[in-house]
Amino acid sequence: MLSKPADPAAVYWELTVTLGADAAETSEAVTNRLWELGAVGVVEEDVAGAATLRAFFPPGTDAAARASTLREYLGELVALAVPGAQACVEIAPLPDEPWADAWRAHFRPVPVGRRLLVCPPWELPSRAEERTVIVI
Questions:
Q1: What stretch(es) of the chain map to CATH 3.30.70.260?
Q2: Burial class (CB in 10 A: 0-12, 13-18, 19+), 130
Q3: Poorest-confidence range of 55-59, 63-67, 132-136?
Q4: What is the pLDDT of residues 4-19, one digit of tens each?
């Protein structure tokens, strides 16, 4: 399924591959193929015993062509009777979000031992701490 955004040249794309059962080795091969196709990142998730690969492609990438090439590759793996090569391939544009700042949500102050508190600069404690605050 392909959704068309207003300006495809300015959108990152996500290509999702859901592999069949027993796909451990197939997952590595498909991940490698995704890198070869120009992915800027690949995430593997285990959902109900099936491997799902999510690959991300930069703006200007012909997502439909990448998906077609990957489907051909998976067809070749099926012809070779590679376990788990039966797969579903989907592409979709990624929503426009402030990705450059999104990572900040995962970094919170961390107490270290009894005396230290390591904090990111955007999340300093509001009250005086009994701990020594280290800003990183």
A1: 8-96
A2: exposed
A3: 132-136
A4: 444 556 789 999 999 9
CATH architecture of 8-96: 2-Layer Sandwich (3.30)
| 25-30 contacts at long range (C-beta below 8 A, 24 or more positions apart) | 25/82, 25/83, 25/84, 26/51, 26/77, 26/82, 26/83, 26/84, 26/85, 27/51, 27/53, 27/84, 29/77, 29/82, 30/70, 30/73, 30/74, 30/87
Name the pTM for this structure: 0.66
- Cα pseudo-dihedral 74, 78, 79, 82, rounded to 10: 110
49: which DSSP letter? T
In tens, the pLDDT along 72-115 reads: 999 999 999 988 888 899 999 987 777 667 777 778 888 899 89
Cα separation, 17 vs 35, in Å, equals 13
